[in-house]
Design goal:
alpha+beta; Arc Repressor Mutant, subunit A; Chorismate lyase; six-stranded antiparallel beta sheet; 7 helices; transcription; UTRA; WH_DNA-bd_sf; WH-like_DNA-bd_sf
């Protein structure tokens, strides 16, 4: 066993539960880069013997570390340090992907898979209130720290943004060009989030297995006048991306950090 684990001395007289002391130790070592992605964690039996604690205590710590994305379990192989998980508070503020990644301190890039004018499906036509049935369809694969993170399908009304389909959205911002060149911007969004199993197409794009759990985030964007400007469906690799929500009482008068 790595001597790293011997650095933890459990405070048995402390009011802090033993499982939480171990959990926080693991989190601290991951954040300090003393534990790295893919590192194998000692077995429950080894750790129980080292710390003289019960298996239920240790299992509670492991369960929370897995649920919070710090560790991952592989059947018949063991427990490992998970890939870095990006934690976003995207619901508090309208942010473009580039802005969100920069706020998280992550390098990013975009590959455009499609950008064309097409006849919209009934779902898209209804959401965007299309008069002529035509939408600009933009498909982008987004990368964070060199790895696929989200595959995004975006639709905007052709009658409002005619010509924007000719831009290279691997280099330029959709929102910025909507505002600068067309005088329209997304002032309000409605989002819905659902956990689904990856289809073969989505799994291939995100570099995961068909059936793997992913997040499907549907965004409807509206102008100040409540005119539908955008309808997007984004598929996020859930093992690398999680969302944090600040939920407060109506009586709360304080400030929430943005």
């Amino acid at each position: 066993m790595d001597k790293l684990y011997e650095k933890l001395v459990l405070q048995r007289q402390s009011a802090i539960p033993l499982y939480y002391q171990f959990k926080q130790f693991i989190i601290d070592k991951i954040k300090a880069n003393e534990l790295h992605e893919g590192d194998l964690i000692p077995t429950e039996e080894e750790l129980c013997k080292l710390y003289a604690i019960s298996r239920p205590t240790l299992r509670q710590a492991f369960a929370e570390l897995v649920n919070e994305g710090y560790l991952t379990r592989q059947r018949a192989k063991g427990t490992f340090v998970a890939k870095h998980s990006l934690s976003s508070k995207f619901v508090n503020k309208i942010m473009q992907f580039n802005e969100e990644m920069e706020a998280l301190g992550v390098t990013h890039r975009t590959e455009v898979k499609k950008c064309a004018v097409e006849n919209a499906s009934p779902e898209i036509a209804s959401a965007l209130q299309l008069r002529d049935g035509k939408a600009i369809a933009l498909q982008r694969l987004r990368f964070a720290d060199g790895e696929p993170l989200v595959f995004e399908f975006t639709y905007i009304p052709y009658r409002l943004f005619r010509g924007i389909e000719n831009l290279n959205f691997a280099k330029v911002s959709l929102y910025e060009n909507m505002k600068k060149e067309y005088g329209l911007y997304v002032a309000r969004t409605e989002k819905s989030v659902r956990a689904i199993a990856a289809t073969a197409e989505i799994a291939e794009m995100l570099g995961t297995k068909e059936g793997a759990p992913i997040l499907r985030i549907v965004t409807k964007g509206f102008s100040v006048e409540n005119l539908p400007l955008e309808y997007s469906i984004a598929y996020y690799l859930s093992e690398r991306y999680n969302m944090r929500l600040d939920v407060v009482s109506p009586d709360f008068k304080g400030c929430i950090n943005q």
